[in-house]
Automatic annotation (TrEMBL):
This protein's record includes keyword DNA-binding: yes
Stored InterPro entries: HTH_LacI (IPR000843), LacI/GalR-like_sensor (IPR046335), Lambda_DNA-bd_dom_sf (IPR010982), Peripla_BP_I (IPR028082)
Annotated keywords: DNA-binding, Repressor, Transcription, Transcription regulation
Protein name: HTH lacI-type domain-containing protein
């Protein structure tokens, strides 16, 4: 069967080759009626664009790299999925790179993406101290704030406000000795800001902070062991803000096994608002991050960067929400 060309589409629709080209490339002026007729003809004829020729002509690959520290993490895998859908709808394919929080892999993937000729990169770094000064492509940073933002756009939830409100809710619901659960030796700007929000809430509500008591550290495997449970009992911890929901799940499981009643003996609130929070017992309270807004802001910003239509050096803060459930508020 003969391959359908733009000239064939022009004959079928009665429009000029130039008009067909404008509709296909979505640039220039044309009416919605014209667009509809051209798209109908494309669908009926099975016309397929020669993307290699288009890429060469426009000096673009229509591909974007996405770098994440842990694709198994709920927040990251949901974020990547939403970004991929938005990019696809804008005509871009994606190359997804998982760094396992390795600085070396992160640097290697950036070079690989540059060599593959992607048009831009969306980065969620697993490195606490990063600048990306050597990145030659347009790039967006999400969640982890770079040391130097002058060549990029930084997009993130308001982690400080999230930490503050999570802790405040524990206190408002009767907790006198709340603690925060964090992973030892895994720092990021997001976790540091959540911790800062935790401290500010303690200060505002005039509660004591003792780093040996008020911080519950987990190892990199994020396991809640008997020593941690003993620490909670020994120090009368009655509220727990976990740095993410996955850690909260593990605490709930271990505490129930250790005959704690939640929320009567200890209240728990997480961060991310995982889809499964409503299906565990008790249902987990959490800080909701608006992944739709984060992904939309990220894609919009990168596409504007590619068009040189945005001021670099900006930070975009996405508001969080508190979603209270049975792990803080006792079911009536």
């Amino acid at each position: 069967m003969k391959n359908v060309t733009i000239k064939d589409l022009a004959k079928i629709t009665g429009f000029s080759v130039a008009t067909i080209s404008r509709v296909i490339n979505n640039n220039g002026r044309f009416s919605e009626e014209t667009r509809g007729k051209v798209l109908d003809a494309i669908e009926k004829t099975g016309y397929q664009m020669n993307y290699s020729a288009k890429n060469l002509r426009m000096n673009k690959s229509f591909s974007i790299g996405i770098i994440v520290p842990d694709i198994s993490n709920y927040f990251f895998n949901q974020l990547v999925q939403k970004i991929e859908i938005l990019l696809f709808n804008n005509g871009y394919s994606t190359i997804i790179c998982n760094t396992d929080r390795s600085i070396e892999k992160e640097k290697s993937y950036i070079k690989t993406l540059e060599n593959k000729g992607v048009d831009g990169i969306i980065i969620v770094s697993g490195n606490q101290q990063f600048k990306f000064e050597d990145v030659k492509l347009p790039y967006i940073c999400i969640d982890r704030e770079p040391l130097n933002k002058k060549n990029t756009i930084f997009i993130s939830s308001d982690h400080f406000d999230g930490g503050y409100k999570a802790t405040s809710e524990l206190i408002k619901h009767g907790c006198k000795n709340p603690a925060i659960a964090m992973v030892k030796d895994r720092e990021s700007t997001s976790s540091n800001l959540r911790f800062a929000g935790f401290l500010k809430a303690l200060k505002d509500y005039e509660l004591d902070f003792n780093p040996n008591i008020s911080i519950v550290y987990l190892d990199k495997k994020e396991e809640v062991n008997d020593n941690i449970i003993n620490h909670l009992q020994k120090n009368n911890i009655d509220g727990l803000f976990t740095i993410n929901d996955f850690i909260a799940f593990k605490f709930i499981d271990k505490l129930k096994y250790s005959h704690f009643n939640i929320p009567e003996d200890i209240k728990i609130i997480g961060f991310d608002d995982n889809y499964f929070n409503k299906f565990i017992t008790p249902k987990l309270s959490s800080i909701y991050q608006d992944l739709d807004l984060i992904s939309q802001a990220s894609v919009d910003s990168l596409l504007k960067m590619l068009d040189k239509d945005i001021v670099l050096g900006q930070s975009i803060s996405i508001p969080i929400e508190v979603h209270l459930r049975e792990s803080v508020v006792k079911k009536i």
